[in-house]
Amino acid sequence: MVNKGVIMATIKVKQIRSKIGYPVDQKRTLLALGLRKISQVVEVEDTPSVRGMIQKVHHLVTIVD
Question: 3 lies in a domain?
């Protein structure tokens, strides 16, 4: 059962480089994170799976404070 009053920790992720020329799986990882354009910032939940996605494309994104 999910507690609706619990607030999950979030991370702000910013795309800093183009996905052109990188493998398809990395392009799909950016899309899964919600990133489509350079300099776009999205706020995602801080979960192990999201951390893994960020690690996979760490050369294309950065964590924003």
Answer: no
